[in-house]
Write a structure and sequence with these properties.
The protein is of the alpha+beta class. The protein is built from two helices and nine strands. The chain has a single domain, classed as Roll (2,3-Dihydroxybiphenyl 1,2-Dioxygenase, domain 1), CATH 3.10.180.10. The chain is globular. The mean pLDDT is about 90.
Length: about 120
């Protein structure tokens, strides 16, 4: 079973996310909005497109908890339900239940060092 298919996002804490977004827009040409920047691409050997999200969060965000790290990686996955069953069997810490939104399904886990990881199965 193919597990991770790519990086869906890079999320990190910042003292002033809006100011940081503006800096990246001005100096590096990021097309930023309130959520950061989205980088679009085509899947290898396919006509399917995908995206990777780059987002600065307020430094006091609780979204990365229980991890104490200043970052969180979002990984794209092919079949989140099957993967969660496998991870549970392997004793991986699952932090919540699968949630579904217009843009896909999500769940959060912890790695062996306590880093919070977001798994995302995009729609379509």
């Amino acid at each position: 079973m193919k597990k991770v298919t790519g990086i869906g996002g890079v999320f990190f804490k910042a003292k002033d996310p809006q100011k940081l977004n503006e800096w990246y827009k001005t100096h590096l040409g990021f097309d930023t909005n309130d959520y950061g920047a989205t980088f679009s691409w085509k899947e290898e050997d396919s006509s399917k497109s995908g995206s990777t999200q780059w987002s600065a969060f307020a430094e006091d965000t609780k979204y990365f908890e229980p991890s104490t790290k200043d970052f969180m990686i979002n990984y794209r996955v092919a079949d989140i339900e099957a993967l969660v069953v496998e991870l549970e069997k392997e004793g991986v810490t699952i932090l919540d239940k699968i949630e579904e939104f217009d843009y896909g399904k999500f769940i959060h886990i912890l790695d062996v060092e306590g880093n919070k990881i977001e798994l995302w199965e995009p729609k379509g």
